[in-house]
Amino acid sequence: SYLKRLEGVTARRSDVRAAMAFCFDHSGSAAEIAAALRAAAEDRAAHADARIARLYVLSDVLFNSQQPGVRNAFYYRDAVERMAPAVFYSLGEAGRALGRMT
């Protein structure tokens, strides 16, 4: 499943690029993949580095969803726009739980 694939994503460009490429290669399943992206980004059990890497994937998917030539890419834009408030709220909660970082 895509959720399992996201568990191993790091902030390395090659990992983020591979995850994003998977999204667009399987854009016919955009709704299911977007749901997995949301679940992965909101996973409170994940380490902060993993959640940041998943946020990079979301960011790249959102940016590239407006590029011409990728079939069904616009579905990702709609899905990411809908999930963004909940994802960022979850990330904010995680940050507050960690306390002040200097």
The value of Rg in angstroms is 13 Å
Distance between the termini: 37 Å
Element order: H for helix, E for strand: HHHHH
Indicate the low-confidence ranges by residue numbers: none
Q: Strand fraction band? A: under 5%
Q: Helix tally? A: 5
* Structural class estimated from helices and strands: mainly alpha
How many runs of DSSP E, i.e. beta strands?
A: 0
Q: Report the sheet with the most strands, covering strand number, pairing sense and barrel closure.
A: none
Approximate shape: globular
Summed over residues and divided by their number, the pLDDT gives a mean of 86
Helix residue percentage: over 70%
Describe the fold and architecture:
The chain is mainly alpha-helical and 102 residues long. Helices cover 73% and strands 0% of the residues. α2 (13-25) crosses α4 (48-64) and α4 (48-64) packs antiparallel against α5.
Task: For the structure shown, list the relevant keywords.
mainly alpha, 5 helices
Brief sketch in words of this structure:
The chain is mainly α and 102 residues long. It is 73% helix and 0% strand.
List the topology elements:
Layout: H1 2-7, H2 13-25, H3 30-41, H4 48-64, H5 73-98
